[in-house]
Amino acid sequence: TTLLERIRQLDPQLNSFITVTADQALEQARAADTRRAAGDTGVLLGAPIAHKDLFCTKGVRTSCASKILDNFVSPYDATVVEKLAAAGTVSLGKLNMDEFAMGSASESSYYGAVKNPWDISRVPGGSSGGSAAAVAARLIPAATATDTGGSIRQPAALTGLTGIKPTYGRVSRWGMIAYASSLDQGGPLARTAEDCALLLGGMAGFDTKDSTSIDQPLDDYLAALAKPLTGLRIGLPQEYFGAGLDNRIADKVMAVVEELKKLGATIKEISLPNMQHAIPAYYVIAPAEASSNLSRFDGVRFGYRCENPTDLTDLYKRSRAEGFGAEVKRRIMVGTYALSAGYYDAYYLKAQKIRRLIKDDFSAAFKDVDLILGPTTPNLAWKLGEKNADPVSAYLEDIYTITANLAGIPGLSMPAGFIDGLPVGVQLLAPYFQEARLLNVAHQYQ
Ligand code: GLN
């Protein structure tokens, strides 16, 4: 069967795609064949992928899984989409996600929840749950995704995949619909580190259209995979193994540590003392930035507009009230509150100070170790709906991933086996711009 047939047969159960672009895919595949016949040996030529539905795609709906963008067709391609198309990839469509990437379960989509292919009564993680479910179910070999607080790494962990969040600024954010601009970063989700290296090589690089893009040469991610791990110094932060972590996950993580030791790594216990403040800081900063970014969805310029507005204020109010889902509204309200005069110092400024302390924790730790290792998530994939009544219980699931976004460092999650048939992930964190090292270690382990 072709991948398009597989999507048709299996995706009704998983709901990983929002839009399937069959005609465009066949056109791109034929173009790739022509290039191949003409002697083009590009590593991504003809590779089937799909994009998280917050990357703008020219002529194809880009919804962000929100009713407010249900009818939005972008007039241009995101840099990531453009670069991957130029490399000859074949896009099969747009992938489901949490609305505006706000969530950890992919349940907040306007188009319905995504299911975990390992157990369809459970969540695939989020917010890139559609990307993860589609790759885990072998509907596509790799997908684009984004990570603001863990949205590449956490779904990778919960679906048994490898995913990397690059250093902030390594992958262009141009055309990637913003959630929290100082934290958002695009990256690949795939089965192996090798596939991630291939896709990241096609996504990353300097872009003059993104003012936070960094003008630094790209490493050869593929060439780095083969490097032996002899002498690699790995730090295990004590804060990553404390209360709240499922013991069975801790055991799996330690089994990976034993394997890495056999491959030549040395282990050191370290401390990241400010980690306990990461969740409150993140859940002030991310909503604050979101409340500002999402002010552009006003029912006037693009997207959903309410019917029969009585005046301009009514148009703004009802378009946004009807267009945004509950979690998005919650974040807009929290963020607006945290930024308002009188509360700014107490919340937003305080959170920014904590952010600096977290960054400093990592800088201090990386003086003694090359990489930091721990669990990606404290728990296994949970049941659909289980955390809906209590948003904070879902926020707590981000404890191990959000620090990398606050500091801007790269992080990778790789599969580390199964517990009761459900995948477990191990996370590796590295200093700025050491994506190649992360992929190298994951590849050597795999
Ligand atoms: N779960 C986090 C949030 O809801 C992270 C989401 C993300 O990385 N996009 O904000």
Description:
This protein has a domain at 3-224: Amidase signature (AS) enzymes. The chain has 446 residues and is of the alpha/beta class. The mean pLDDT is 97. It has an eight-stranded mixed sheet with strand order 4-6-5-10-11-9-7-8, with helices on both faces. It has a three-stranded mixed sheet with strand order 1-3-2. Helix content is 37%, strand content 14%. Helix 6 runs antiparallel to helix 15 and helix 9 crosses helix 11 (326-339). It has helices spanning 3-14, 22-37, 79-86, 129-136, 153-159, 193-203, 221-224, 247-262, 278-293, 312-323, 326-339, 345-365, 391-395, 402-407, 435-445, and strands at residues 17-20, 48-52, 90-95, 142-146, 162-165, 186-190, 233-237, 266-270, 371-375, 411-419, 422-429. Glutamine (GLN) binds next to loops. Heterotrimer of A, B and C subunits. The active site is at residues 52, 127, 151. Residues 1-439 form the Amidase domain. Keywords: ATP-binding, Ligase, Nucleotide-binding, Protein biosynthesis, Transferase. Belongs to the amidase family. GatA subfamily.
